[in-house]
Amino acid sequence: MDRKEEFYDLMNIIYDVSDKISSYEKNPRTYGTDDLLHMIEAHTIEIIGNNKEITSSEIAKKMYKTKGAVSQTIDKLIQKGLVVKNSHPKDNRKFILELTENGKIVFGHHRRKDETAFDRYLDRLEEYSDEDFKNCKDILCKIFKLNT
Questions:
Q1: What number of H helices and E strands is found in the chain?
Q2: Which residues does the UniProt record annotate as the domain HTH marR-type (predicted)?
Q3: Torsion of CA 43, 21, 76, 49, to 10 degrees
Q4: Which domains are delineated in the chain?
Q5: Of 138, 71, 127, 73, which Cα lies nearest the Cα of 103?
Q6: In 10 A of CB 77, how many CB atoms?
Q7: What rounded mean pLDDT belongs to the chain?
Q8: Which listed site, 77, 80, 114, 145, has its alpha carbon 20 to 30 Å from 138?
């Protein structure tokens, strides 16, 4: 195959991966508590857990989602008792999002699940170098205009 055909093949694989992820995301799961969470909720918890004093606008930027979509997700997480809103210490028009104790349990459980899955994937890729992973990451970031 020539360069263009290889690239088109890559894009079709990306579409297949996207379909597989979409299918996976539709099924809610538990993450160490009794709460059933969709993937978007677990990833929102992950972002809050990894970023102190984060606002919903900042989450929207990180997730490439609208502020409205993120606000709906955060409202669900507040209702489930996993996230709380606190006044921003410097700007009373903003709210800081923090994890509750149950939110921290979900955060830790989700992180461990990801690490287990990522290690399993990495074991399948022994023949690829650090440079191969870097190139793959660079290509995907350029295609989808991601900032990492």
A1: 6, 4
A2: 7-145
A3: -10
A4: 28-144 (1.10.10.10)
A5: 73
A6: 24
A7: 95
A8: 114
